[in-house]
Every structure is written in C-alpha cells, then in structure tokens.
Amino acid sequence: MSSTQVTGAAPQRMTEAEFRSLYDRLRAQVPWGPDDRRGALNYITPAEVRAACGQVRLGRTVSLAAPVEDWATADNPDPAQHQMKEPLGADAGPGLAFSMDRIAMNIHGNADTHIDALCHVIFDGQLYHGVPAETVTETGAAELAIAVAADGIVGRGVLLDVPRSRGVPWLEPGDHVTEADLLAAERDQSLRVGRGDIVLVRVGHRRRRAERGPWDASTARAGLHPALLALAAERQIAALGSDGNNDTAPSVVDGVDFPVHVLAVNALGLHLMDYLQFDQLGPLCEREGRWAFLCVIAPLRLPTGTGSPVNPIAIL
Asked: Closest Cα to residue 22, out of 196, 234, 237, 271?
C-alpha cells in the first residue's frame, strides 16, 4: 500500500462545452465501422481469451456480485420481489413435490449488481454509433441489446483499488477517481491495464454501505471523473465496472447527468457494470500479491434487454 495517505481533491468541473468536446473526440476514436454493434468487446479476441486463461493459478473462483436484496432501503426503494410458490415444504404430502419460487427485479438501479447494454444510454437522441434512439420501443431494444454479450464476456480482469492507494477504507460520496488515481493504483499494484482488459475500479461504496448503512446513492456517491475515459480509450479496455455506479453524484459536468455513462456506453461502446462487490476479491488479491485474473461475465439471455442482472466471476 502507498505509505502516503491521499485525500480527494475538489472535483475539477467541466462545462457542457468541454464535455461535448471530449464526447466528440472519444466518438471519433472508435475504430470500427458504422455497422458495429459489439463496441469495445471487439478488443477481446480469441488470443486475449487464451492469454487470460493463463492467469489461473489457484483455481479459486470468487463472485463479484452483491446478494440480491428484496427489502426496501434508502438506495433501493423498489427492490427485487422474491416470492415462494406453493406448496411449501410443510405442505408437501407423500411422494414427490417441488420447491419453487419466482423473482422480479429492476435491471438498473443503485443497489443490485448489473451490466448496462449499449442501448441503455441515449444522448442527443442517439445510441452508440449513432443508432437512432427510436430502436428502443415498448417491446425492448431492437439494436445494441445485451444479447450482444449472449456468449459471455471472458478476458483478463484487473482490479484497481483506489482507496488502497490513498490509504483510506473508501472514497466519500461526491469524491471522484482521476487519471492520477488509476496510475497510482497501477504503480502500487505493479500492473498495467492494457488492450482487451476488463477493468474493475474499487471506490469502496460497498464497504461504506456495509459499515455505515444504506443512503440515497442517487444524490451522493463516489465514482469516476469523466476525463478518465480518455485513458480508457487510449488503453483500449474492453469493459468497465465499479463497486459504485461508475458516475459520481452530484455530476461534475454542467448540464449533463451521468457523464461517465454517456462517454463509456454511448461514445466508446463500453459495457458498464454497476454496483459490483469486491469484499472477497480484494483481500484475496492482496494475499496473493497479484491483481489480475480470469474474469467471466455471463448476462442473462435477454434478446431485447437494456442490460441484465449479472454475477461476474473472478478465477485466480
């Protein structure tokens, strides 16, 4: 761990004009033609998958998802509904019986672990690569749905622990991760993010929630500074996730909410994972002295879905 404790500086605000300039610049860097629908997943080739399998040494699997909660909290006022179906165990008679249940849940929100499809973020009436927003209708998304990742996302996962480098347990709501933070985490963890990586950024949201209790994360949360997406584009990462929402609240961009979602999903074609959990992964990486692993992400088969609940697995 870095021996110097660092506190978050005041967020560098961006005007809407500055944000739109960055948005246009990042869109222009996308190397695939207008018919592309996979976005940054194109960076993961069979060669990258084979190389990522070489990260497995212990044979240890770790879930990166938080347990699904079916009770209302300050950050989850409309929680998942888990219902048991009859007959219950005590009602079962002689012979065969089955225990059954059903679940209903929002895909997006501020509590459950999920992945955003490229159809999730509409900006100026367009989706990724200029696909018209009208392709999302009451029957679902006809373009850029999570079905793009139906065969799974498999590659080298990298955990960058920003609070660890700063010497704090978590970043406070409203704080933001900068490019300097990620470079410091790379240095402190002796690794470098590269092409095709699945980059996971810890801000400590889950630990703070566990120790301090839920709060209204829609109005106050730690996340990434939008300027950081220039580094993501330069390094050609394949997917991005965090134990928070990825976006800081309140937004640091004048007139634009969720600027990281706009730049990542809409401009660069990056599938985002929100509200991951690193409670097991972080200590294991610390103990083993390595922060890269095989990562397997398997969304549900939702042909027209704007995202999916997801349980990513790290394999060390």
From this structure: 234
Give me the residues paired with residue 83 across strands. 102
**Cβ(259)–Cβ(19) below 8 Å:** yes
Please tell me whether the overall predicted TM-score, pTM, comes out greater than 0.90 for this model. yes
How many helices (H) and strands (E) in the chain? Answer: 8, 15
Res. 4: pLDDT tops 80: no
* Helix boundaries (H) for the chain: 16-29, 46-53, 162-166, 179-189, 205-212, 229-235, 259-261, 281-288
The number of beta carbons lying within 10 Å of the beta carbon of residue 179 is: 16
How far is residue 230's CA from residue 214's CA, in Å, rounded to a whole number?
Answer: 32
**Strands 176-177, 223-224: pairing kind:** parallel
The helix (run of H) or strand (run of E) holding residue 11 is none
pLDDT band at 209 (very low <50, low <70, confident <90, very high): very high
Maximum C-alpha span of the chain = 71
Q: What is the pLDDT of residues 139-170, one digit of tens each?
A: 999 999 999 999 999 999 999 999 999 999 99
**Cα–Cα distance, 120 to 128 (Å, whole number):** 9
Alpha-carbon distance of 109 to 218, in angstroms, equals 9
Find the helix or strand (DSSP H, E) in which 307 lies: strand 307-309
Amino acid at 51: A
Least confident among 5-14, 204-213, 276-285: 5-14
pLDDT at 8 over 60: no
